[in-house]
């Protein structure tokens, strides 16, 4: 497995670990360095008498070290990877794993095997059906309360909401969690992100409430919907589509541009969002991965690169979210996606998708020949036809885009959301620049 400096940085728990790991990326710090197709290992001489034994599982990326550090991976694991990238020749190529390395690798393989469901496991279908029916009743009951809450809120008026902006939806959001309608709970929680002290908040609030009410109406009449639309509605309410079911569907193979990778953290959970664009199919795809704070990102993709992979899409009238189906072949090439789309094409694309699916929240798009303009205290994207759209990026991101492009026209990838365009990456002279 080949690593890059950028990939290693993604594994690090913090900047201090990166700095310490780089300091260890010198051959004089290691008394043993070896590589095998399954693992990388080394003995790092610390201040004590016994060197720290460090291992990196290359098959199912993981780290192990005998040092007492509670960070994961520790500085020794990072240092070993940095050393391998910068000085691969100091590693001896081994045909066999060292005994302590083989023992750890085998233990991991055994645990992975134990996690797989047993083929002969008996599923109590009646009990499972009862659980599904019980949850369905909870969801139905919760939806009726939500519909009544929205009606009461609109009937009594919304002008006092800014005075109670953080609590007005607290109880009903908690009720949706109790009703096992997590999607609806998230919709309600997103209302708190509205700026109630900025002109136009009323429109944003009513639009969100209306869309949520429309979603409950669609759920109540889901049996009248086409299969993909029904699955989309159920997913937005909070019912999960099993990964196994998605992966069993027909896949789509293409050369995919990695347009952007965005990682956010909430407590001990990391969310990785990867936007892709098919070179031949001209389709967009969104991969969403979840990790605990100590887990390493599974695919190790690099923004701006090209990969060959088969994707399986979640059912939807406008399918975007997908899963990798099988092996992802990294081509380590940075190429510019071809596009001649202006802002008029973006608006037409948005209109077409909303006609198919009124619940779509994020619409990815590639724009060409656009410039960043700061006018009347507002950030805009303006194209060659002088059509414009509001930029949804944070102010420091807008300044970053302006500094990268120097006021010249550029190609960019972004996401249309809430009547604004959020730029995620910029392409200039076939070179990739991340914004997020």
Summarize the structure.
By secondary structure, the chain is of the alpha+beta class.
In terms of topology, how is this protein built?
Elements: H1 5-11, H2 15-23, E1 30-35, E2 39-44, E3 52-57, E4 62-65, H3 75-86, E5 92-93, H4 99-115, H5 125-156, H6 170-178, H7 182-190, H8 201-220, H9 227-237, H10 243-247, E6 252-266, E7 269-278, E8 284-292, E9 305-313, E10 322-324, E11 329-334, H11 343-356, E12 363-375, E13 378-383, E14 388-390, H12 395-405, E15 410-417, E16 420-428, E17 431-434
Helix pairs in contact: 1-3, 2-3, 5-6, 5-8, 6-7, 8-9
Describe this structure in words.
The protein has twelve helices and 17 strands. The protein is an alpha+beta fold and 436 residues long. It has four domains: 111 residues, no CATH class; 110 residues; 92 residues, Beta Barrel (OB fold (Dihydrolipoamide Acetyltransferase, E2P)), CATH 2.40.50; 92 residues, OB fold (Dihydrolipoamide Acetyltransferase, E2P), CATH 2.40.50. The strands form three sheets. Strands 6, 7, 8, 9, 10 and 11 form a six-stranded antiparallel beta sheet that branches. Strands 14-13-12-15-16-17 form a six-stranded antiparallel beta sheet. The longest helix has 32 residues.
């Amino acid at each position: 497995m080949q690593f890059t400096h950028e990939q290693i940085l993604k594994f690090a728990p913090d900047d201090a670990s990166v700095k310490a790991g780089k300091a260890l990326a010198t051959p004089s710090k290691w008394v043993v360095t070896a590589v095998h197709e399954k693992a990388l290992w080394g003995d790092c001489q610390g201040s004590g008498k016994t060197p720290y034994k460090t291992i990196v599982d290359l098959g199912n990326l993981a780290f192990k070290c005998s040092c007492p550090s509670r960070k994961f991976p520790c500085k020794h694991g990072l240092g070993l990877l940095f050393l391998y990238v910068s000085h691969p020749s100091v590693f001896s190529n081994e045909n066999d794993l060292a005994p302590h390395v083989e023992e750890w690798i085998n233990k991991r393989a055994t645990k992975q095997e134990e996690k797989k469901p047993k083929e002969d496991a008996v599923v109590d279908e009646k009990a499972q059906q009862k659980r599904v029916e019980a949850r369905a009743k909870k969801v139905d009951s919760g939806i009726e309360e939500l519909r009544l809450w929205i009606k009461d809120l609109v009937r009594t008026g919304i002008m006092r909401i800014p005075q109670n902006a953080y609590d007005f939806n607290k109880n009903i959001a908690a009720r949706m969690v109790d009703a096992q309608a997590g999607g609806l709970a998230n919709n309600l929680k997103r209302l708190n992100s509205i700026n109630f002290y900025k002109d136009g908040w009323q429109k944003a609030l009513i639009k969100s409430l209306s869309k949520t009410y429309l979603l409950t109406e669609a759920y109540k009449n889901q049996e009248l919907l086409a299969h993909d639309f029904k699955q989309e509605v159920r997913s937005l309410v909070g019912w999960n589509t099993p990964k196994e079911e998605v992966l069993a569907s027909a896949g789509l193979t293409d050369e995919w541009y990695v347009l952007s990778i965005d990682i956010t953290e909430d407590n001990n959970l990391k969310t990785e969002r990867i936007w892709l664009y098919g070179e031949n199919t001209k389709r967009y795809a969104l991969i969403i991965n979840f990790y605990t704070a100590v887990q390493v990102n599974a695919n190790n993709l690099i923004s701006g690169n090209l990969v060959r992979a088969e994707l399986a899409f979640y059912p939807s009238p406008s399918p975007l979210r997908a899963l990798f189906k099988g092996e992802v072949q990294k081509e380590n090439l940075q190429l510019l996606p071809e596009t001649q789309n202006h802002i008029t094409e973006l608006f037409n694309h948005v209109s077409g998708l909303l006609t198919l699916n009124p619940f779509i929240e994020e619409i990815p798009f590639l724009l060409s020949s656009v410039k960043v303009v700061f006018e009347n205290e507002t950030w805009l994207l303006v194209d060659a036809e002088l059509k414009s759209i509001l930029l949804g990026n944070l102010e420091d991101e807008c300044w970053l885009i302006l500094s990268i492009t120097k006021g010249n026209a550029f190609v960019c990838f972004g996401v249309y959301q809430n009547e604004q365009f959020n730029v995620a990456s910029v392409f200039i002279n076939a070179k990739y620049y991340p914004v997020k």
